[in-house]
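Design job #97: recover the sequence.
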């Protein structure tokens, strides 16, 4: 899901840069529409599996809001293609792209909120891996006899 969101951001930036080349806007708008379709499908699956339900609702709502922003952006791109020298339409296109970028960041924050449990598991697994590595290192030094014993016991007695 994150790669699709990233692609959408790239196209928004390309669209704002294409204000000087309006003939490129049609292809960019088409690609953005395809990418948003993929995002909507994956967002629906993410919302259905999100826990708690409020997170799923938030994902669904923010993806829909992003879709509305994309519609306005494509409409402004079409208007600029019709009248490429209209500075007011250029400004509107840039404003729409900025609004869509904000909506993308809201979608990302909703996805991250739904991903907290997964991130907590990754963090815990990383911490456990570090502890295991430390124990393995200690065992290696103890087996080699390089650790000083406090009394006359051997490592094998405690292992």
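Job complete. Output follows.
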């Amino acid at each position: 899901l994150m790669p699709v969101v990233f692609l959408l951001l790239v196209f928004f930036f390309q669209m704002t840069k294409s204000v000087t080349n309006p003939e490129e806007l049609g292809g960019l708008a088409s690609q953005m529409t395809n990418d948003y379709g993929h995002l909507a499908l994956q967002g629906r699956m993410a919302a259905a599996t999100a826990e708690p339900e409020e997170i799923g609702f938030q994902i669904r709502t923010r993806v829909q809001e992003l879709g509305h922003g994309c519609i306005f952006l494509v409409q402004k791109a079409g208007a600029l293609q019709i009248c490429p020298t209209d500075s007011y339409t250029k400004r509107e296109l840039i404003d729409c792209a900025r609004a869509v970028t904000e909506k993308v960041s809201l979608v990302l924050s909703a996805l991250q909120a739904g991903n907290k449990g997964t991130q907590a598991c990754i963090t815990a697994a990383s911490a456990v891996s570090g502890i295991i590595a430390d124990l393995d290192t200690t065992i290696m030094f103890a087996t080699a006899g390089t650790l000083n014993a406090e009394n006359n016991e051997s490592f094998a007695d405690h292992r």
